[in-house]
Amino acid sequence: MFYKDERLALFIDGSNLYAAAKALGFDIDYKLLRQEFERRGKLVRAFYYTALLENEEYSPIRPLVDWLHYNGYAMVTKPAKEYTDSMGRRKVKGNMDIELAVNAMELAPRLDHAVLFSGDGDFRPLVEALQRMGVRVSVVSTIRSQPPMIADELRRQADNFIELDALREVIGRPPREAREPEAAAEA
């Protein structure tokens, strides 16, 4: 699937990857994730996409965003939009698909392999366009959750499908709730 001399880039749809890992019952260790793909090829760039609530005093994702930025990830963020739906529930909207697609298309001439961490079927045309430009595309998501987190049309379009659950031992860490109290205190 991967060749040592190929130039590769990671495109991580933050909320989609988080939801897939959560559905499988583990947390991603982003340091291990980056190291794993540095071993698989010449990592040109690792993008992480997420929307942020700007008006919140404290955003639970802010420490992760800061850590990723400091540790070699190219962070692409934008303010999330808050609204109230017809049932009166507070909702947050922050789609990063366009930003991811634009970055992938801009970088494509300098890539051999793109790794998309998302199961969103809206990315099928992007995968197809990258392939027309000669870029191989691997998609990382899961079919092992109920319901599966990857759209069938995206999985079929990709050159390779990588089951997120198969990477658990390489890039995962146990969820915080499952840790022993002593281990959590030492961490």
How would you describe the overall organization of this protein?
- The chain is an alpha/beta fold and 187 residues long.
- The chain has one domain (5-79, 92-142, 154-169): Rossmann fold (3-Layer(aba) Sandwich), CATH 3.40.50.1010.
- The protein is built from 8 helices and 10 strands.
- The chain has a 6-stranded parallel sheet, sandwiched between helices. Strands 2-10 form a two-stranded antiparallel ribbon. A two-stranded antiparallel ribbon has the order 5-6.
- InterPro entries: LabA (IPR047140), NYN (IPR021139).
- It comes from bioreactor metagenome.
- GO terms for molecular function: RNA nuclease activity.
Chart the SSEs and their pairings.
Elements (H helix, E strand, L loop, with lengths): L6 E7 H11 L2 E2 L1 H11 L1 E11 L9 H9 L3 E6 L1 E4 L5 E4 L3 H11 L5 E5 L6 H9 L3 E6 L10 H6 L2 E4 L4 H4 E2 L7 H6 L1
Parallel strand pairs: 1-3, 1-7, 3-4, 7-8, 8-9
Antiparallel strand pairs: 2-10, 5-6
GO molecular function, one term: RNA nuclease activity
Protein name: NYN domain-containing protein
Pfam families: NYN (PF01936)
